[in-house]
Amino acid sequence: MTMHAILNVIHWNIDPVIFEVGSFGLRYYALCFLAAFVVSYVLMLKIFTREGKSQELLDQLSIYIFLGTLIGARLGHCLFYEFDYYIQHPLEMILPFRMNNGSFELTGFQGLASHGGAIGILTALFLFSRKTKTNFIWIADRLVLVVPLAGAFVRIGNFFNSEIVGLPSTLPWAVVFEKNDLVPRHPAQLYEAIAYIIIFLILWSMYQKNAKPKPGYLFGIFLVLLFGARFFLEFFKENQEAFEEGMKFNMGQLLSIPFMIGGLYLIFRKPKDSSK
């Protein structure tokens, strides 16, 4: 459990599990995931209060978003990255355990895809807007103010897990993820976390200056900036699955393109109705 610089390289060997009780282990990733929701809730409460919306409505939204994120991210990983395996083990998509050689094994949800999470959130927003009669674009414009910050927490969790690592690098801030190998690599998770924090600051500043922007404008800016950053930063990452080898653009980049196109449409479209 050390982090030290040797020959201009950072060695990272933190145990991702904080403590274990039986088959249960509390991981830094889980704490980061929890922090993402707590911080997002606090900021969204400020937004709802500012715009005269009730906390009860936010509580309902939070449930939808939590379930949409978890279900979408899980299914996204299974379907986008490991389809061949999970199509033959469909129950493992939704169950946090499996039977291994006749014995019960608690696995948790090993594998979450951010693009799947994005689809899950959009689906949850659609269902929420229909259930509560809340304008979809209005709530999307506000929710995207906090999503980048939540994404930064998740990527920090990935760093603790020594996963989603970068390509080999000779830069002075290169990191050796000792749990994987002894190769100095780009800390791609931290690149993303920093990018998402910058995007959060940009969107939050825009909202503070104009609390009633053109409907869909903040949503569009979010899609272009966040998935544009994701597309660019994928060039610094190792491919996550073997099938991506030899592809000009990996799965993360291909999945980012439709979101960026949707964002450009929202930015430049002329809204039919500016009412909230």
Short description, anyone?
The longest helix has 26 residues, at 55-80. The chain has nine helices and eight strands. It is an alpha+beta fold.
Radius of gyration: 20 Å
Low-confidence segments: 1-6
Count helical runs: 9
| Beta-strand percent range | 5-15%
N- to C-terminal distance: 52 Å
Structural class assignment: alpha+beta
Major beta sheet, specifics?
A: 4 strands, mixed
Mean pLDDT: 85
* Number of domains as seen in the coordinates: 1
Largest sheet, order of strands side by side?
A: 1-2-7-8
Coarse morphology = globular
How many β-strand stretches? 8
Order of helices and strands: EEEEHHHEEHHHEEHHH
Helix content: 40-55%
Family: Belongs to the Lgt family.
Binding site for a 1,2-diacyl-sn-glycero-3-phospho-(1'-sn-glycerol): 155
Pfam families: LGT
InterPro entries: Lgt
Describe this structure in words.
This protein is an alpha+beta fold and 276 residues long. The chain has one domain. Helices cover 55% and strands 11% of the residues. It is built from nine helices and eight strands. The chain has helices spanning 28-50, 55-80, 83-86, 114-132, 136-143, 147-160, 188-209, 217-233, 251-268; strands at 3-6, 9-12, 17-21, 24-27, 97-100, 103-106, 175-177, 184-185. The strands form three sheets. It has a four-stranded mixed β-sheet with strand order 1-2-7-8, with no helix packed on it. A hairpin with a 2-residue loop joins strand 1 and strand 2 (9-12). Helix 1 (28-50) packs across helix 2 (55-80). The relative contact order is 0.12. Mean pLDDT is 85; it is low at 1-6. Keywords: Cell membrane, Lipoprotein, Membrane, Transferase, Transmembrane, Transmembrane helix. Its main location: membrane. GO terms for molecular function: phosphatidylglycerol-prolipoprotein diacylglyceryl transferase activity.
